[in-house]
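Give me the fold.
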Amino acid sequence: AIFAYHTGNELETLESDGLKLRPELVLVQFYMNDFTIPPEAGGTAPPPSLGDRLTAVKNRVLYSSAFYRRLHQAVDGLGYLLVHDARRRWFPGSLNAAEPRGELAMLAATPDDERIAAFRLQHRIRDVAREHGARTLVILMPDEVQLFTRRYDGINERFAAFCRRQGIELYDPLPARRGEARSAGRGRSEEHTSELQSHHD
């Protein structure tokens, strides 16, 4: 797992490193920003700047250190505990929804799966794994905004439909995670929020 890797990088990693391990199962975590693929990987995103490339090199070096990963997790965890978790609990409507909103719009504007680079690359990962006797399981990681609203469920529905057509095993943890967020009292449901707004009006 390396920060800012997209599905194309994961395919390259599978071919260069993963297959040497003779896997029986190839596990792929797919995040919403994995829909953004640069042109050199067959996508339409703007090419990375020099700064982006230097950051990628820095991350690859730093994340190779177990000590750095643990330190990074501790610092991030403290920040989430003190600030972000409180925001999610009490003000979920203030969370940044720009990414799922943009991905949903992109999917709606691109009905043909073949025109979406992330889907093509996911298909290729499945093929490479199958050629070497391995199954592929994709975990579709939800955006945190999705824990508190169903507005962006179309992303998951489209991804699940693609996986069904291609015979790719998929696990979508969103329903379980959404239930956990609600049972923990983290925010109000979209329906409850709408009801409150109606009373306010």
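The first helix runs from residue 7 to 16.
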